[in-house]
Each structure stands twice: as structure tokens, then as C-alpha cells.
Design goal:
By secondary structure, the protein is α/β, with parallel strands linked by helices. The protein folds into two domains: 202 residues, Rossmann fold (3-Layer(aba) Sandwich), CATH 3.40.50; 166 residues, Rossmann fold, CATH 3.40.50. It contains 15 helices and 14 strands. The radius of gyration is 21 Å and the shape is globular. The model has no long low-confidence stretch (mean pLDDT 94).
Length: 402
């Protein structure tokens, strides 16, 4: 007999990644499905993926990904195209299998227009606040020109509109919740914090990659997307400082993940004399990057101090911790909330001190081991996704009868 999902059908919109690659969306969709919801996801596509499939009980609808450039026009084109593509697919989902909740994950915050349309039809709206879109824009384009100041203010308005129209808001941490209360004027009882916790049954140490194990006295790693706000240029300059300031030459660094400007980062590594000791892998699936990280000694989080990074929880820190790797990061508020004593902290935006903290770990294997154990236990005890399931389901339950 076909299960009756009336009143428990969810459509999740995500623009800046695909499914199931986006770990947070994967966890949310799976949790809702296991709790008896019928879940559909609309996202961008990946090579060799069908535009429509039923994957482990979850309906997935994908639109073709369009590679955008670096400029403002490309930025507007990407988000405008994605908005239209998601709206088109949402109509298909509305017909079959249908939805009662529209769960929009940002960035961008333009999905609020789709949500607003469906609220007219009686659908409930959950705004899943992943990133601070205005701050991301400001980091990418600055605020020197009038057009950039105007677009920043528009993005703030879209964030406020998303929060105003949402029946409930999911924040990734308490820093975001504070912003939603202060900047977006949202009552605290309309916000639920659901952190980006890894599933430690899936993310854990595995057989180390033999190509990387023992590659040098110290093997360092960076994991994640490489955009301007992520500070990979800080990491490369810190590696240069290991050589030039401190005379440490026996190291190797693997940088795992997609980049907005891969050629530019590779050129910077070459110009700094690092090309033969850095490996840019590009995007890798979980099983591949876990094998690589299991072979490294130290994880690096080089995100510089700015309003975005001070407030954001970095998934890479939790990945390092889950794989029992100590980390080095700039001393930012949410870095300490996440990593605690499993990381060493450098003075913000000081890449010489970032290198100095790396040296402390390079020279002390016992400290690396202790910090790795602290990190793994911290994830298991506090941040594992199992602790995020109840808040997520409570957020849905709070608006079930609105």
C-alpha cells in the first residue's frame, strides 16, 4: 500500500552545490526521510548524473550547471539562471510528487522569490541559513564602487525578506542566530540552531593513501572549496614562510577541493616556489579525500578574519577532528567554538604566525596525537550529526499546523 505523505512532503532547494555531495543537505534530507517525510531535492547537476532520479527514497531533480566567470555580470547571470531553473523544476515537483514545505538553503537568498510564490498557495517555508550572502559578496567585490554598495544592500534586504517570510529559520550556529535577531529582526523563538555536524559513522580514519603517506617529514592538508573568502592564499604564503623564515623544507601539502580560480592558485604556488610540494586535487568524493586526510599529519584552516569567517562554522575543521587530525587556524570566534583544544591558533591574518603554529605541531608528534584524540572525541561527544536530528525535526514540528 502506498504511504500517505499528505502534510509531510518537503522540497529542498540548494543552488551552490549538488546532491548528495552537499553534506548538510544530505544529512537533512536523510533525517527527514527517516522520520517519515517525503523529500524532494532540486540542485545543480554533476557530470554523468541524471536530471531526475529516486535515490535512496529521495526524489532528486537536477538542472544543468553553468560555469560562471569572475565578474559581476557572471555573478548575476549565475544566480538569475539558477533561480529560473529551480522554479521550473519546482513546478514539475509540485505536480508530482508534490510538497507541503519548501526548504530553501542559501546562498543565494534569491530562492525567497520561489518560496514567496508557493506561500501564496499555502506552502510553509523554512529558510536554511547556510552562509552570510552579503558578507560573501563584499569579500568578493569590495564596497568601493557605488554599484557594489547597492548590491550589498540588496543582499541584506533579501536576507531580511527570507527571514520575514519564513515560517521558521534554521541557523548553522549561534553567531548566525544572533545576526538574524539583530540585523533581520527575527524573534528568537522562530530560529532553531542545527549545526553542520559530520556523521562519525561515515567520516572516520580509513586506510591512508599510500601515495601520500611518508611523502615528507610533515604532510599538511587543506580540505574544502577554494574561494576568495577561504584564505588559500594565506596558506600558500604560510608554506612559503616555512621555507624562507624558518628553514623548514621537508614538508608536503595536499589541497583537496574545487577552486574558483584553480589556475591562479597554482600560479601563486609556482611563484612562491611551492609547486613541487603542493598538490591540488580538485573535487574528490568522500572515500578519496578520507584516504588522503588519513595519511596527513596536520589540517590547515586558513580562513582570514572578517565578518563572514568570524561568524561561520567551518566544516573542514570538523572533518579534521573526525579523522583525528590536529589543526592550525587563525584565532576566530567560531573556530574556537568548533575546534577547542584540538587546534593551535595563529594571530588573525598573520601568515608568519600561521607557519609558526604549524612548526609547533611538526616538531611535536606527541602533541599532534593528543590533539587529534581531543578532536575526535569532541566531534563524537558534541557535534556528531545525531545531535542535530532532534533540532531539525523540532523546527518542522513547530510549524506543522500553521
Amino acid at each position: 500500500m502506498r504511504k500517505d505523505f499528505r502534510g509531510k512532503r518537503v522540497l529542498i532547494l540548494v543552488e551552490n552545490s549538488s546532491y548528495p555531495e552537499d553534506g548538510r543537505i544530505f544529512h537533512e534530507a536523510t533525517t527527514l526521510s527517516e522520520a517519515g517525510y517525503q523529500v524532494s531535492v532540486i540542485c545543480q547537476s554533476r557530470p554523468n548524473r541524471p536530471w531526475r532520479e529516486l535515490r535512496d527514497g529521495i526524489y532528486v531533480f537536477r538542472y544543468p550547471y553553468v560555469i560562471s566567470g569572475k565578474g559581476l555580470v557572471s555573478y548575476l547571470w549565475e544566480y538569475g539562471y539558477s533561480l529560473l531553473a529551480m522554479f521550473y523544476l519546482s513546478i514539475i515537483v509540485l505536480v508530482k510528487p508534490g510538497f507541503d514545505y519548501i526548504h530553501a538553503a542559501n546562498p543565494p537568498d534569491t530562492a525567497v522569490f520561489i518560496a514567496a510564490f508557493y506561500k501564496i498557495l499555502g506552502k510553509r517555508f523554512i529558510f536554511d541559513h547556510h552562509d552570510l550572502s552579503p558578507e560573501i559578496y563584499q569579500i568578493k567585490y569590495g564596497a568601493n564602487k557605488k554599484i557594489h554598495r547597492l548590491l550589498y544592500s540588496i543582499l541584506v534586504s533579501l536576507e531580511r525578506l527570507s527571514c520575514k517570510l519564513a515560517d521558521h529559520i534554521i541557523a548553522t550556529n549561534y553567531s548566525y542566530k544572533a545576526i538574524e535577531i539583530k540585523r533581520d529582526r527575527v524573534p528568537a523563538d522562530r530560529i532553531t540552531v542545527v549545526r553542520n555536524g559530520p556523521d562519525t559513522h561515515l567520516i572516520h580514519p580509513v586506510q591512508p593513501n599510500p601515495e601520500l603517506s611518508g611523502r615528507a617529514k610533515a604532510v599538511l592538508a587543506y580540505l574544502g572549496s577554494m574561494a576568495k573568502q577561504d584564505g588559500v592564499d594565506h596558506l600558500l604564503r604560510a608554506l612559503h614562510n616555512l621555507d624562507q623564515c624558518f628553514g623548514y623544507h621537508d614538508w608536503f601539502c595536499v589541497l583537496i577541493g574545487p577552486a574558483d580560480d584553480m589556475k591562479g592558485l597554482q600560479k601563486l604556488a609556482h611563484d612562491l616556489g611551492l609547486a613541487d610540494r603542493t598538490w591540488f586535487t580538485g573535487y574528490l568524493p568522500n572515500e578519496s579525500w578520507m584516504s588522503l586526510l588519513s595519511a596527513v599529519d596536520i589540517g590547515i584552516e586558513p580562513a582570514p578574519a572578517n565578518p563572514l569567517n568570524e561568524a561561520s562554522t567551518m566544516a573542514k575543521l570538523m572533518a579534521y577532528m573526525a579523522l583525528m587530525k590536529p589543526s592550525v587556524a587563525y584565532d576566530l570566534r567560531e573556530h574556537r567554538v568548533t575546534a577547542g583544544d584540538s587546534a593551535l591558533y595563529a594571530r588573525p591574518n598573520d601568515d608568519v604566525d600561521l607557519a609558526r603554529q604549524c612548526i609547533r605541531l611538526i616538531d611535536d608528534p606527541d602533541l599532534r596525537k593528543r590533539m587529534g584524540e581531543i578532536g575526535r572525541q569532541r566531534v563524537v561527544d558534541q557535534f556528531d550529526w545525531k545531535y542535530q536530528k532532534e533540532p531539525l525535526l523540532s523546527a518542522y514540528a513547530s510549524i506543522a499546523h500553521k
